[in-house]
Amino acid sequence: MAKASINGTELHYDVIGEGKPLLMIHGLASSMQDWQLQIPTLKKQHQLVLVDLRGHGKTGAAADYSIPVMADDLHHLLECLNIEACNVMGISMGGMVAMALAAKYPVKVDQLILVNTATSLHHTTLPYRTLLKFRRLMPLIPMPTLAKIMVHSLLPGDHLHPVREVLRQRWQENDPQLLSACLESLITTDLSLWLPDISAETLFIRGDRDFFSLTSAMACCNAIPEARLHTIKDSGHGTPADQMLAFNNAVQEFLSR
What we know:
single chain, alpha/beta, Rossmann fold, eight-stranded mixed β-sheet, 8 strands, 20% strand, hydrolase activity
């Protein structure tokens, strides 16, 4: 693992494999480690650029957690790595960062994969919108308890217990103050007007039980000029984990076009 000083933050990243670069962007409370189920497959044909976003993983705290600033971080990282253009994949909050990166810096992004994401958190289903109203209580909840609640919500089912346990152990290392700050920034995010500026060929992958609405996913695909929707059955928000094979196959098929 390496680090780069970018926009006043020590951004931790890793580069694995050979081939066309693929920048992989994790979601809220996550880190580059949560792509472990994809790395063995994708590194065979791609140079994977993995990164911990500001306030996540080994990357430290920052004053600003806005999506455009995170996109700027990644643009500067690509510049530091002398990557002129790459493919980009982002999940959830990482999908928002990927959208902003593709819209602000279109020459940097050839193919774009958006996974279980939306232009705004207001496109979640009603139970999750209700939970967002209690977001300011997050710093008061012990992180091990919060991590357990989050992984059970995102990856339900007894068959996913081993994956849940790995994620729980990772996620409980988060700082609830930083997560709360990131969530506050996300609440004000709306990227809907950015979508027409995305010129990259785009695949939108959605689990059929994701808490971001199908209507929102379809709206994204209609607004991005070169986008199509791919639905993965029996999957929630954690599609790369709960339907690993179907997800990896969809990603590989798209990137081989």
